[in-house]
Amino acid sequence: MTVKTKVSKDNKEVSISVLERFDFAQHQCFRKAYSQYSQNGTKFIVDLSKTEYIDSSALGMILLLKDYAEHIDGTLTITKPSKAVSKILEIAQFHRLMTIVQ
User: Fold this and answer.
1) What's this model's pTM, rounded to 2 decimal places?
2) Residue 24 φ/ψ region, left for φ over 0, alpha for ψ in the -120 to 50 degree band, beta for the rest
3) How is the chain split into domains, by residue range?
4) pLDDT (tens digit, 9 = 90+) per residue, 19-72?
5) Fold designation for 3-101
């Protein structure tokens, strides 16, 4: 499995790691990783430190997660993108939409 989820004990922080490739093949796993957490104020963290490839469908999945987080008054942070992934996020201007932590 290339999508791993770690949840805090109080279910208020959900960390989702995407390993290797982040593309449409991970759609169901990625959605499943967050959709069961609907507590108001949940903080979602997408860890891209081990992501080597990201495509436009992955960008769309991140935007869907952002919408979901906002719907439940939560937040979304992207952490540790590699240089290549960071460049794609920059081109897509995701830094204007969400917090990206290097």
Assistant:
1) 0.94
2) alpha
3) 3-101
4) 999 999 999 999 999 999 999 999 999 999 999 999 999 999 999 999 999 999
5) Transcription Regulator spoIIAA (3.30.750)
